């Protein structure tokens, strides 16, 4: 079992209830229940609604995962669970469930960091990650550039958003364009019909004076405001709003900044592998642009398939599997749900 542990992972940090099972780097099951439809009319995730949905979904999702992997809880070597960061009430459901299963089946438990899990999931598709690597995590709640020397030991933050997360910008712009929630997938689709060069939206924190203090940081709130002002001006003039062109130009502004800073981070660190994870990594334009720009500098880009980019239980199991294989001590049974878990903690120390 030592280097091919059978690990079950539970994810409940936001609006997806996920239970995944892996053996070593092999994915055996990835059961998911989403409450996204219940949040759509509010234009964003409502924490209380998410917590309630996790409570209803956790046991059936667990049962589906075990059936899919054709294993029983007794076969599992360890249980991993997202301890943070995320919505406090939502995290609590997963952490409480994981403790219950760990106690009942007498299994070790690992409380893990959601962001590190977004990095670890790629091993399920592309095998061990060449380290050091630079990881760019872009999702609804975070946008960060990290140096990964040894994922089981911690990550070094290089930069992060100073205001909105990249996914949050997609969600807010989709809302103001009347495209619904979540915004990322629908803008991605709509942008395919538009011209990404039609509107020159601002690229946050890329001017020389900003780069001095914020070389690897992001800012998307000015971009969101610029899109809002542009749309308002058209409406004021009684002109139709070219939704596809606005979507494509907005998406280009986000992807341009993300990829430019990610490649710059790799070059500054002398790193030849760029890993992209989190929900926004599902974006088709981001994947293409990152690949094109990285190739020019001999950098390899690794992006998991879209289904593994958004939140799921397999990513938590993947990180748990690495921790077990590396001989990291499990967490204690009284491990907390930590909504503000720092990036530097990959798992809750035992
Ligand atoms: O990682 P994730 O599932 O949850 C968080 O941890 O936040 O990311 C969700 C975010 C949402 O903001 C969603 O709009 C965005 O990822 N997203 C996308 C795409 N698919 C999901 N953004 C851009 N393009 C996509 N195709
Ligand atoms: Zn996430």
UniProtKB/TrEMBL annotation:
Name of the protein: tRNA N6-adenosine threonylcarbamoyltransferase
GO MF, one example: tRNA N(6)-L-threonylcarbamoyladenine synthase activity
Reaction catalysis annotation: L-threonylcarbamoyladenylate + adenosine(37) in tRNA = N(6)-L-threonylcarbamoyladenosine(37) in tRNA + AMP + H(+)
Encoding gene, per UniProt annotation: tsaD
Subcellular location: Cytoplasm
Leading EC class: transferase
Keyword match Cytoplasm: yes
Cofactor note: Binds 1 Fe(2+) ion per subunit.
Binding site for substrate: 137-141, 171, 184, 188, 283
Cofactor(s) recorded in Swiss-Prot or TrEMBL: Fe(2+)
Entry keyword set: Acyltransferase, Cytoplasm, Iron, Metal-binding, Transferase, tRNA processing
Family that this chain belongs to: Belongs to the KAE1 / TsaD family.
CDD domains, sorted: ASKHA_NBD_TsaD_bac
Main function: Required for the formation of a threonylcarbamoyl group on adenosine at position 37 (t(6)A37) in tRNAs that read codons beginning with adenine. Is involved in the transfer of the threonylcarbamoyl moiety of threonylcarbamoyl-AMP (TC-AMP) to the N6 group of A37, together with TsaE and TsaB. TsaD likely plays a direct catalytic role in this reaction.
Residue ranges occupied by any Gcp-like domain in the UniProt entry: 27-317
EC code(s) of this entry: 2.3.1.234
The UniProt record lists the keyword Metal-binding: yes
Residues binding Fe cation: 114, 118, 311
Domain of life: Bacteria
């Amino acid at each position: 079992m030592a280097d091919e542990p059978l690990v079950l992972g539970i994810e409940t940090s936001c609006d997806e209830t996920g239970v995944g099972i892996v053996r070593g780097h092999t994915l055996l099951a990835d059961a998911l229940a989403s409450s996204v439809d219940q949040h759509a009319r509010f234009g964003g995730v409502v924490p209380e609604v998410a917590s309630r949905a996790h409570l209803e979904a956790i046991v059936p999702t667990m049962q589906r995962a075990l059936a899919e992997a054709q294993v029983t809880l007794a076969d599992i070597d360890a249980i991993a669970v997202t301890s943070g960061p995320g919505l406090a009430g939502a995290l609590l459901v997963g952490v409480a469930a994981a403790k219950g299963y760990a106690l009942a089946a007498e299994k070790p438990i690992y409380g893990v960091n959601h962001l590190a899990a977004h990095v670890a999931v790629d091993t399920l598709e592309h095998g061990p990650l060449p380290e050091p690597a630079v990881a760019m995590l872009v999702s609804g709640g975070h946008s960060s550039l990290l140096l990964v020397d040894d994922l089981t030991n911690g990550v070094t933050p290089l930069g992060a958003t100073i205001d909105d997360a990249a996914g949050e910008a997609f969600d807010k712009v989709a809302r103001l364009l009347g495209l619904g929630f979540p915004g990322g997938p629908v803008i991605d689709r709509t942008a395919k019909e538009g011209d990404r060069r039609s509107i020159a939206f601002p690229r946050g924190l890329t001017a020389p004076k900003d780069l001095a203090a914020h070389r690897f940081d992001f800012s998307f709130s000015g971009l969101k405001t610029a899109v809002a002002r542009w749309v308002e001006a058209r409406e004021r003039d009684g002109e139709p709003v070219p939704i596809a062109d606005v979507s494509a130009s907005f998406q280009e502004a986000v992807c341009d900044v993300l990829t430019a800073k990610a490649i710059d981070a790799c070059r500054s660190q002398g790193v030849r592998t760029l890993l992209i994870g989190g929900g926004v990594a599902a974006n088709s334009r981001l994947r293409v642009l990152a690949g094109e720009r990285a190739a020019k500098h001999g950098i390899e880009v690794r992006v998991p398939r879209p289904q593994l980019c958004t939140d799921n239980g397999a990513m938590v199991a993947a990180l748990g599997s690495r921790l077990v294989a590396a001989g990291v001590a499990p967490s204690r049974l009284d491990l907390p749900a930590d909504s503000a878990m720092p990036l530097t903690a990959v798992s809750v120390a035992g």
